[in-house]
Amino acid sequence: MAAVPDFLPEPESPDKDTTTGGSAQPSGLKPIERLTSDSRIDRIRPESDAKTVLRYSSLFARTYIRSDYNFCAAKIAVARGGKTRALEKALRETSEWLRKTEQWLLRFEARPIELPHDMIELTITRPLAGLLVRCLTQYDRVYVRATERLARGKITDEQRLGILNNAERKLRLIVQICMPDNDQYTADGEHREK
């Protein structure tokens, strides 16, 4: 049984010059700060110092970039063993599916439509993060091609929604693979069931 100390140390009083940034902590402990996606990716020691500018038109791409890209890039940076294999497999399958889908859409001749777009600079910490950026670029091209074909009456609204829903599901799967720790994957990239 652990011995209980006879005295309790007094909490340190903060200096008068420092601000607590909100409510004071009665315990004297520093408040816990959660890492945001930006602060998480800033702590990574990248294998490369690459940056790219991604142009996107779809709401899904914008949401994914703002809420999931930095999280995935950070998790990719620390992935080891089976988790790396699982991520690589999922990213390559997604990229190949998007490539084939774009080729299928291009079979239907349609005049290009200039959709409104935004641009954002992304940090690429590892080659797999670069592959994720490639998938996002491919997704946005599929989005534009499907919208052009729908506007020209080459495909139906149901076909367009089916294509985009499948693509979005594949990209969300990348986020799901990033969540478990490295030790939850077997050497061949399979997730261990609990």
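Above is the first protein from milestone M3; the second protein from the same milestone is given next.
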Amino acid sequence: MPAILPGQTDIYALTDSRLSLGRPLAVVAGALLDAGVRILQYREKHFKAGKMLEECRLLRRLTEKAGACFIVNDHIDIAMLVGADGVHIGQEDLPVPEVRRLVGPDMLIGLSTHSPEQAVAAVNAGADYIGVGPIFATRTKEDVVDPVGYGYLDWVARNIDLPFVAIGGIKAHNIAEVAGHGARCCALVSELVGARDIPARVEAVRTAMREGLDR
């Protein structure tokens, strides 16, 4: 089954064990997938490689069963070992063409971008999709850049044909406005994994996003 791209689904969920209210990864991921989330990225910045490999193998099994797309953040080796659908990298990671040499033609490569120049470079380098943000200030990453606001999001929606996902501080209360600026797929971390009732929060986010898209 072809991997699902941003734009083909609305919610792009990221893991974060520190925000998951002490619940095991299997519980959190299972709730997200059962609620209809179809892109799940594994992003854990504080684990050793062995634990990340174990958890990614678990997520690969869960996402395959759910028919969802599984993305690994940064760790190209782990993405390859578990047969992930894609890997997501940042501006300071290996260049996209070098990542492509490693992962082959079929694995998705997502690249975080923060400016029009970076978006154009991502297209030219052969990225499959780009991250656009951070839209708002966020504390889920320690090395985060300054918020780009709606200006960059508007520019990408008008000028870039590549699939993209908006990310950074997006919550149920502001996702309608983000969608109204052209984001058909939004990435969320704490808003989803930190919710006590994950399915209810996914539905609330979806409803708000649809309202923004219909404006």
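Note on the second protein: The CA atoms of residues 50 and 94 lie 21 Å apart.
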